[in-house]
Design brief:
The structure holds 2 protein chains of 2 kinds. Chain A has 19 helices and 2 strands. By secondary structure, chain A is mostly helical. Chain A has one domain. In chain A, a hairpin with a 4-residue loop joins strand 1 and strand 2. Chain B is mainly alpha-helical. Chain B has a single domain, classed as Helix Hairpins. The mean pLDDT of chain B is about 85. The longest helix of chain B has 30 residues. The chains are: A mainly alpha, B mainly alpha.
């Protein structure tokens, strides 16, 4: 008879407990402890405190793995596994939640929305992400995914008084639920094939079967369609631009960074795990999806006037680049995926911080015209935006170049020359539409001079994302070591 | 094992799932679309339970319970959003909701 809740189980679960505890605590504090509007900053303080506790838990896991030299810590009879992969992604999620929390305070004040629910939902969504990165069991992964997704459905529709936000939430929920249905149908077949919900046993069962076994192919197709929906890869991307545009800007940033990183963690876990032996089946499929994603993302971004929508299409195209690393699939490719995700979350959030700062009372500030002459109005934010856009376009010495470098290198190493050429060509297209924003900021006539919605939190978030976007590009060594974590098996 | 063979259950599950998916893609009422998603998830439950019965395991049954919980949570959030939308305009048809271009 095995023990139900061992100290190892607790050790692995601590960060998730902290996230859930503080998430629920903030909901209660909002009601009982800090009901006055001027006490709201304490709610944000509790969010940061919760993240600090989570960080301590992660740090102890990190230390333990480094000191003991073990490849992984397994808990709950193999349901949760803390390995380099899980640790890497959890650090990314922690950074994302922190930046999102900091940039949201001022925005929520302007929109006149509740703070408590919002911060609580951030932590609960991160709790779901924790299980997505750490789970190695279908049930855990599914619950983690849904916990994250449900929090995001609510957050996308957070501006209850705006029709646009509600519509975005409805669309996101319908397509999200549909894709979950497909995903979990694939899970049921995987369970039927292997008689287990554990990824390790499913890997064995799938590897023992014929590569083109119809059941395996059906499971592969339904599962990967569900996953590709979540990472907004074409042709399953149609929810992304509308949801990104309608959602509150800070939530859009969270959706583009946190949700996408977590979905990719899940996708890589599945494709590098149970489906690795069926590479012959999914490689041509993913190549087609990646090319289509790059094409649609980059070409549709050209004509966009709304910055949020433009960044939505840009995030679709970045999903295409990350998929390319998975297609290459060698060590450089997987490292490239990790580097790219790390870099991508910071540069995307940086761009959204500036868009968030543009939102003021009576001014939505989402069109490219609203950025006109930003360099004269507030040079600091213009520089942050410039750094992030250069990085998104992949121009050295910013971090975006580093991510693309590893992806292209892995493609060349594995002999996917044509894919590498296509990917490089689309970088040129991307430079064009990112520089439309740069041109507006630096060349266009200054619009009405209204001060940006700056606050301490927004400034810290902007400084943090811009520094990291530039810093990873200039001094990549420590970050490359961090990105090495998921590759070590 | 006697009684109804596994393949029959799985066939029924595929039929239900396809009905749900087709309904989701064809129908335009938001409520019907939500119901179609529920139908898809229930088809999944059927397949889980059929497999678990065949394998004489409890894992599949447990998964089915979790899927039910998730389906309920999704319905709760979904209906709340439908209600919020309805407050602006009596629109529960997907086409009338301007941005929804499915």
């Amino acid at each position: 008879m095995s023990q139900f809740y061992t100290s190892t189980d607790h050790f692995v679960l601590v960060p998730a407990i902290m996230l859930a505890l503080f998430g629920c605590a903030i909901l209660l504090f909002d009601f009982f402890l800090f009901p006055e509007p001027r006490q709201r900053k304490w709610l944000l303080a509790f969010l940061v405190l919760g993240l600090v506790f989570t960080g301590v838990g992660l740090w102890r896991q990190h230390r333990f793995l480094a000191e003991s030299g073990l490849p992984q810590i397994t808990a709950f009879q193999g349901t949760l596994t803390v390995d380099g992969f899980a640790l890497f992604f959890n650090w990314v999620f922690l950074a994302v939640s922190l930046v999102i929390g900091l940039m949201s305070y001022r925005y929520l004040e302007i929109e006149g929305e509740h703070h408590g629910e919002y911060y609580g939902l951030i932590l609960l969504a991160q709790c779901g992400m924790y299980f997505l990165a750490t789970g190695t069991d279908l049930i855990t992964l599914f619950i983690g995914l849904e916990l994250m997704a449900l929090c995001f459905y609510i957050m996308v529709g957070f501006l209850r008084t705006q029709k646009r936000s509600n519509e975005a939430a409805m669309k996101y929920l319908l397509l999200g639920a549909f894709s979950s249905g497909l995903l979990v149908y694939g899970f049921s077949i995987l369970y039927g094939i292997s008689g287990s919900t554990k990824l390790s046993e499913i890997s064995l069962a799938v590897a023992n079967r014929d590569t083109w076994d119809p059941l395996v192919v059906l499971a592969l197709i339904t599962t990967s369609v569900g996953l590709l929906f979540k990472v907004s890869a074409a042709p399953f991307h149609m929810w992304a631009p509308d949801a990104y545009e309608g959602a509150p800007t800070t939530v859009t940033a969270f959706l583009a960074s946190g949700s996408k990183a977590a979905s990719f963690a899940f996708l890589v876990r599945m494709f590098a795990g149970p489906f690795e032996s069926t590479r012959a089946v999914w490689e041509p499929l993913l190549i087609a999806v990646a090319i289509l994603t790059l094409t649609i993302g980059n070409l549709a971004a050209i004509t966009q006037e709304n910055v949020k929508r433009l960044l939505a299409y840009s995030s679709i195209s970045h999903a295409g680049y990350i998929l390319l690393g998975l297609i290459a699939g060698n060590e450089t490719g997987l490292k490239g995926v990790a580097v790219y995700i790390l870099v991508y979350v910071f540069m995307t959030m940086g761009a959204f911080v500036v868009v968030t700062a543009l939102r003021r009372a009576h001014l939505i500030g989402e069109n490219i015209d609203d950025l006109a002459g930003l360099i004269h109005r507030s040079p600091g934010y213009a520089i942050v935006m410039l750094v992030c856009l250069l990085s998104l376009a992949g121009i050295p010495p910013t971090a975006g170049f580093l991510g693309k470098y590893y992806i292209f290198l892995s493609l060349v190493q594995t002999g996917h020359y044509l894919l590498a050429v296509i990917a490089v060509l689309y970088v040129a297209v991307a430079v064009y539409y990112y520089f439309r924003i740069v041109r507006a900021m630096f060349v266009a006539e200054a619009g009405p001079s209204v001060a940006l919605a700056s606050s301490f939190g927004v400034r810290v978030a902007a400084a943090l994302t811009a520094t990291l976007t530039l810093g990873i590009g200039i001094y990549p060594e420590p970050f490359l070591q961090l990105a090495q974590l998921p590759v070590m098996r | 094992m006697n009684g109804v063979p596994l393949a029959w259950y799985l066939t029924l599950s595929v039929i239900l799932f396809s009905l749900g998916a087709a309904g989701f893609l064809i129908r335009r009422s938001l409520l019907t679309m939500l119901m179609c998603v529920e139908l898809m998830l229930n088809a999944v439950n059927l397949s889980f339970v059929a497999f678990a019965y065949r394998l004489q395991q409890v894992d599949g049954h447990i998964f089915a319970f979790f899927v039910m919980v998730i389906a309920a949570a999704e319905a709760a959030v979904g209906l709340a959003i439908v209600l919020a939308l309805f407050r602006y305009r009596a629109a529960v048809e997907a086409d009338e909701v301007g941005m929804l271009r499915l």
